[in-house]
Specification:
This protein is an alpha/beta fold and 356 residues long. 54% of the residues lie in helices and 7% in strands. Strand 1, helix 1 (11-21) and strand 2 form a beta-alpha-beta unit.
Length: 356
């Protein structure tokens, strides 16, 4: 049964939530205190429960058991974050948590779960649109928690797995917001690069997550500078370059690990010490940062800017090759398959600059 089962401790609240969300999948609300389970196991479960007590958890477990749900996707709305909530969620087999503060993103979370469950396929366009909405409603709105960013990472990772980097770039390039376009291009490239490098699934997601966060500091840059229809002058460039430190400051204390914080602060550092904000060089720049920097530079080159057309893959990769010494040479070589894939098939790509 391709239905969403909503379990609630307040029928009216969940009914309003369901009305506001306008979900596309058929949905039925079940009262936590009414022991009547669904006649057939649902495809997805959504728990909308404000107060978590031992009695509530016992009732939830009983209802889930009665419904014969097994290991179905279970989305959990979290009203009070903390270790106890995390423990309860693990006990209940929750697969995705979403905070009440980010409830507006729930339709996209449910949609992602629907796709991953094989109920409804999504086009590359739809994946990218969901990702852009995620950026607008979370990262750009300052809703910065590891849980919410992980939800966005799932959108990108699923899209790259389903459609590949070529379709992702083709769709994202059509976005009219330059910041959204750039972040999503870099996130897609990072997910594809991680796959090429044979990283574990956990590390692939971490790399894509770091890419989604890398330019969060641009939310602190004046719009007139961020969206200027032309090249920035020296003073404007000085302001723009503060985004790395601003982003780092925004994330401190919010639960992001040192690798994530390092990417946000240091993704413009160069191996020869010519980068910013700290003029790091050589081994002082972690591998995680180096990976994102390659994706960031390439993403910027293939984007359309008000003062130039997007570069072709061959031209952009030539620049990466020319930056060896500032960029990690081994990673530039390793990035070559992503570049080929980003231009679709090799026979449409032409002669790629030699990486040797």
């Amino acid at each position: 049964m391709n239905e969403l089962m909503l379990i609630s401790d307040d029928f009216r609240r969940t009914e309003r939530l369901l009305h506001d969300l306008r979900l596309s999948i058929p949905s039925t609300i079940y009262d936590l205190y009414d022991h009547t389970p669904p006649a057939n196991p649902p495809a997805i479960i959504l728990s909308d429960i404000r107060e978590l007590t031992s009695d509530v958890i016992a009732r939830l477990k009983h209802l889930l058991c009665q419904a014969g749900i097994g290991k179905k996707p279970h989305v959990f709305v979290v009203y009070n974050e903390g270790p106890r909530t995390q423990a309860y969620a693990q006990m209940l087999g929750v697969t995705t948590m979403i905070t009440a503060a980010a409830i507006s993103t729930l339709p996209r979370v449910i949609e992602r779960v629907v796709v991953e469950a094989g109920i409804v396929p999504l086009s590359a366009q739809k994946h990218a649109s969901r990702a852009r909405e995620f950026l607008r409603d979370t990262i750009m709105a300052g809703v910065l928690t590891p849980t919410e960013v992980a939800n966005g990472t799932e959108i990108v990772a699923t899209a790259i797995s389903a459609h590949g980097i070529y379709d992702w770039i083709r769709v994202v390039r059509d976005f009219d917001d330059g910041t959204h376009q750039h972040i999503l291009l870099v996130a897609g490239l990072a997910a594809a690069f991680a796959g090429t490098l044979g990283m574990s699934m956990a590390d692939r997601h971490r790399l894509a997550q770091a890419a989604l966060l890398h330019d969060v500091g641009k939310t602190k840059i004046p719009v007139a500078i961020l969206n200027k229809p032309g090249r920035l002058d020296a003073a404007e460039m000085t302001v723009m370059r503060t985004h790395a430190v601003e982003g780092y400051r925004m994330l401190i204390g919010l639960g992001f690990d040192d690798a994530m914080l390092g990417v946000v602060r240091s993704h413009h550092e160069m191996l020869d010490g010519s980068g910013y904000p700290d003029r790091l060089s050589g081994d002082s720049i972690p591998d995680f940062v180096r990976l994102i920097t390659v994706c960031d530079v390439y993403g910027a080159l293939i984007e359309e800017r008000p003062y130039r057309a997007p570069m072709a893959a061959t031209e952009a990769y030539s620049i990466l090759v020319g930056m060896m010494g500032r960029l990690d040479a081994d990673l530039v070589h390793a990035f070559r398959p992503v570049v080929i894939a980003s231009a679709s098939h090799a026979n449409r790509f032409g002669t790629l600059v030699s990486s040797h």
